[in-house]
Give the backbone structure.
Amino acid sequence: MMSKIATREAYGNTLAKLAEVNKNIIVLDADLSKSTKTCDVKNSSPESFYNMGIAEANMVGVAAGLASCGKTVFASSFAMFLAGRAFEQIRNSIAYTKLNVKLCATHSGISVGEDGASHQAIEDIALMRSIPNMTVLSPCDSIETEECIKAAANYNGPCYVRLGRLAVDTVNTSDNYKFELGKGVTLREGNDCTIITTGSMVQLSLEASDKLRLEGINARVINLHTIKPIDKDIIIKAAKETGKIVTAEEHSIIGGLGSAISEVVCESYPVPVKKVGIKDVFGQSGKPDELFEKYNLTSDEIIRVIKSF
């Protein structure tokens, strides 16, 4: 078993390696580089790093300016402040003009923990996927994060990458693992129902699937590391073959992964979809594992919802 690694750690490490060999990459941070791990770039390639201060909207504007001059720009802050505070600048200065800016947001979801509701971004997927031209990525572990950041660097256009604070288990350890932008990954086969999940809930979805298998219920598990553009083929195939879908996300059930899946299913092959996520409430301060329990972001809740079918 590999040690637990936070996706933000993998982000900083990968970006530092990329910045060392690609001097066209510029990294901006809103005075949180130790937390977002862009300090790795600051330490290894200081000429590529700029601290923009606690001014996220201005940082995004500067990112747009640099990108308009041909630079590949990575801009980072906490998800709440990057997706929330700088929404207008992201929409108008980056996405509208389709500039080559990568918005890499750490500390997403409620696993920020003790920082409480003011810092817990549970709406960022909904915000970012609603913007035209925006690609939205949500890796589940360190290996997938590395591939996401490499793919984002090679993609010419705006990207939002959702990263977490908590150290998580590495699940993509198979030699056959292949990352492809816009394509989901089937982690468990099964034809009784399908769990479609993303980010930190992937590990819990696999745990739920393993528990269900002991009871004779074979739940397929699909990891959607790309929320937009969404992999319609893998979703429709699952709908046709299993007839029941449960979505699991560390995000509001309004506008996030569950909503995106429902849109595809309703249009193409209607089957029941039930959502595990945050139920239209704010988070609160507490230890991450206690918050996951309180807001029913657990393998047991996934199992309960599947059995409710």
User: Anything to note?
Assistant: The first helix runs from residue 7 to 21.
